[in-house]
Amino acid sequence: MTQGSESVRFGKRTADTVLQRFEQWARDTPGAHALIAGAESLTYGQLDERAGQLAQRLLASGLPPGGLVAIGTARQAELVVALLATLKAGGTYAVVDTETPRTGQGQLTVAEPFVLLTTLAHRAALDNGSGVKVIRLGAEAASIAGQRGEQPADRPSGQSADQLSDQPSDQFADVTSGRPAAQAAASPPPPAPGRTAALLFTGAAEPRAVPVSHGLLLAAHDSWAEVARLTPADRHLITAGTDVTAFAAGWTRALCSGGALVLPRRSPWKPEDIRAAVGTEHVTVLHTDPATALELLKGEDEPGTAFRSLRLLAVLGDRLYLDDQAALQVLLRPGARVLNVYGLAESAGIGTWFELPQLPRPLDDPEELSLLGTPFPGCRAEVHDGQIRLTPPGAGDAIPTGDLGVLREDGLLEFGGRLGDRITLPGGRSVDAHPIESAIRSHEGIGSVIVKGVESARGPRRLVAYVAPPTRGSTSSRVPPLPDIEELREHLAGKVPREETPRTVMARAVLSRIHL
Does position 172 have pLDDT exceeding 60, yes or no? Predict the structure, then answer.
């Protein structure tokens, strides 16, 4: 069974790219906010200029057309400059994880970049002995800017360079020469739509690099913009790590629509910093995962009072159950939207989306349902032998997602679990964890659950349920305590076969399972 969603945006081929979209906004609105990150904030004009400077350094390094540039820095404003510079230089960008160096090392091994843009500290952590060429970002260049009498943007009048020694500078220095940016070189011609623009990494334990073309990156942005109704007045905040598709492709949602991207002064975002930033920077579009969304709204009891500036909450990266989506919707102001977004790195982060108005009627047992909804414009979704397959804009082959699903009679796609979560029990029989987890979630004292097969030193593999209390709404005594194993078995009687009932319950304060 197949779903499809068409749009006039995808009826014609175009040589347009996300870089050209950004540069058009830089020409039309050079003074508008592009990056909001305290003293590291940049306007569109400043961001375009700094990216151009670094692009010249990349070209001077001998970067070939389509050459891969890996970017590793904790300063997200600096990172955005670097990925735009890569596109300006005609290269392909890949953002690597600096928070978990082992992951970053694995990503570099898989990607095999021509050059690595990073800081001195991150270079030491990421160095995997490959001998890759390095262009160094950050504090080293500050002294160069100072020697040339240049002042970083947004420096308060009279503040010295020493006082801003931990801030990024206007210039970027080569790790070996320490020289300022080279004189302007000829800009490369616009890339063909089919040429690779970015390598995105999957969230698997062993990182896998996924090439995404210029055409797909732009089509994914246009599709997202149509669903989200993006405007230049929007201010976006993305809580995911910078190497995750939500950020590595999602930056286009802001900078290709004339909006602003709100960034942390240091990576990664923390809940208290997100709350503060949404309020002080008047964030209108928040991109986050279910666990973070629920944690941010924890303790909010009054309907329509949370995050008054938000007009759109996009939840992605893990399954969002219908009861949690409804709870989030109630807590936001009337008219604000809550989207459950489902996608892949292979489709630049888009696939399907769901919001409550898509429901044709009220549904029973919302705590057991995660609805993925309908395809983004230009996408197609099908269920083949129980597995969800996505076709991104621009056609091509359908991509197996590794997720199970059902296309319901009401036309909505329903999440049915993950092939990778199947558990092999003694005797070789396999069971799907998702139906068991959904049945456990119907207990009013449980907010999240993960069922795993655990090896036992005292016997064969057994099913263990890791459970956490609800995080949405009030934390008062009205929420029942977590059940013990006997209570859980009684609750599951008649819902789950006896042999598929967990034998152990492990209580946790919070559970999260990010899989995209």
Answer: no
